[in-house]
Amino acid sequence: MRVVYKARDTHLDRFVALKILPAEKVADPDRKRRFVQEAKAASSLNHPNIITIHDIESEGGIQFIAMEYVAGKTLDRLIPRKGMRLSEALKLAIQMADALAKAHSAGIVHRDLKPGNVMVTGEGLVKVLDFGLAKLTEVSGSREEATLTLESLTEEGLIVGTVSYMSPEQAGGKTIDVRSDIFSFGAVLYEMVSGQKAFQGDTKLSTLAAIVKQEPRPVSQLVPTVPGDLEKIVNRCLRKDRERRSQTMADVKIALQELKEESDSGTLVSAPSTQRIRRRGKVWTVVAVVTLAVAGVAVWINRSTIKMPEAPLTAVPLTSYPGQERQPSFSPDGNQVAFSWNGEKQDNFDIYVKLIGSGTQLRLTTAPEADTNPAWSPDGNSIAFIRQRPGGKASVVLVSPLGPPERKVAEISKTGMDWLRGLVWTPDGKSLVVTDWNSDSEPSGLFLLSVESGEKQRLTSPKQKLFVDSQPAFSPDGRTLAFIRAVAVGVHDIYRLALSEDFQPIGEPKRLTFENQVTFRSVWTLDGREIIFSSGPYLGPNLFRIAASGSGKPQRLVYTRDLIDVNIWRLQVPGPHGKISSPIRLISSTRVDGHAQFSPDGKRIAFNSNRTGSFEIWICDSDGSNAQRLTLLGVYCGSPQWSPDGERIAFSSILEKQWEIYVISANGGRPKRLTSSPAYDDQPRWSRDRKWIYFLSDRSGENQIWKTPAGGGEALRLTTKGGALALKSPDPQWVYYTRSDGALWKVPRDGGEETQVLESVEDNYFAIVNGGIYFIPRPDSAGLHSIQFFNFATKRIQSIAKIESEIDAYLSVSPDDRWILYSQDDQVGSDLMLVENFH
To answer: What is the value of pTM for the model shown?
Structure first.
């Protein structure tokens, strides 16, 4: 189609490649248009694995492109007859996938990916060439090109691309999108691994027919040692139906990277021989990895007998949208998933439906309130969900999988974490099981809700009214209900309730798990013998299975991914007339770092982090350097608090099966437990005289502020009207604390009259200094947070700084009142993950 020369750029004294359209071809308008298109498309991309375009010029009627000169060989000259070594193939394939992902994100489809268009340097660097056939994808509604017959495909100029690597839709003259490149990539990867083309025939027509109608020979038959996961990646890329094909190159790249990591670590498993595999069914498990450590799980199981080889579980992205996707629910046929997503702008949760393997989704709801917890009816005709309402209420609503109209079933009470509550259909499709309560004086529980009448019947009653029964799941025969019950703050376990034929409770629920961790979303296997659930440390849940009888210990299935990055930021306190400075990121990792507290001398910072797995207490220098782990308990350790002399650190933990207060030396060692009854405060506070530690507990039946001797002993109640977080004051006569209504209060250190100080404090985000209170109020109308200062002397409030990201942890002020520490969510999101090879 064109000629390429090696030339010297005399201005910059460098070699370049000149791609020239021969003069006799200039008269061909279509060829000329594609030539210019190549230059424009490729020049818009800036990526180390894509050839760099320097310029496009015309001289003497000849058009040419000046581009980067790459010394190396094309991939087709590097592939051995029996295929490349696995490590080399993965190294090159990842670079190719990264290049295509970049092009696709810019709306560019290559349309002629083949080994001859991939250059490899002597150092192993990949450069994808020849975007001459690239086509900018239409923003909306492109119409299909005229379908070409096989006879017309032989005519010059009617098709573009190289026959052996075309996608079925490209061979048929249909509309092309990024999934066509994914098919071509699969064909190239097939050849890299096996040394043979995936599709080949005696003629172009026979090759095209093979692409459209035939499946390629399994890679494992050609290379018996090929890893099973690599064969799956190739097969997903080469699916004829582009709706079932891998949908993005970004996802393919991630899968290849994970495969390379396993290969480098020596944990890869070869593909089992296809002669020995008889798959009579398939199981898909979906895990929704949710901000703040929530993993939702849904399972659809084919009713055929399952006989699968022992292969490692793999998790592949089902969605990868911006923001948070939660609470997946499979359709009865297992082909679609309903879920809640806060949308492109991340401004409101609505219900969506997605076809498995499709890159698009259908939005079902558009109400301004948050819609969560979708549940597909047994007949597939309705999706039930929960809509948040103002005034402490929520609604159970039905909608068709195709969209409106909606029907409100009933109103229910609103909980503090409605997106966790869940709901499930009874097997007969006549009722739903949902979390609710009849009055504030009664405990919450699970209720049977009639879809027709809206009437409710209580099924469960927790012993403590502060806790919630949620996330119900029916066994396949409909005679047993599994659900999650909070047995302590931050500790949730699975319970099982036997039911009669008309879904009435038989006896009391039985507790199945005793893992002392956060547990969410249980589902049953088809035979009713096991329950799959998500559980683990805060922000680090895993997927487990346990016998429905409760015998034995849970077995881990697969790790999930955290999609949240919380870091500690430092802000300089402005002087009386000083300019407000920009905050800087002080302590960071790819995980969660929060709850930072200055030491009394200001030289060190204590914080908690899950950078090594579970949340532990860490200490670093005041500039964020020299971070060292203080605890190694393997369970969640709450935010640390320095003693006034800087020698000890108090924190809360579930080390001994319930939340208690512990103290540890600032130099490390074994922590000492101080409390002997549930102490729920995530941030215990020291008194100024080091004699007491303030904490939150409901041991009296309600949440109140208590204090316990720092050396151990009997705890004393401090408040009578409720409380949340207690904080010491520069004035030792007072203890400041928040209430559930969001106001800040103070009480004498020995108890007495309680006085309101501030009306609005976001969660428990405040710090007290000699002159006043630094605090974060509730977000403004635009949803933005700010740090403000309440002056004790003037009673006035001054704005210190605007915070655009979500605040994630408490404030700390340095002893010299120069610096403020706070944590913010620098990345928050969640994807639905499809777990394959489950058996």
So the answer is: 0.46
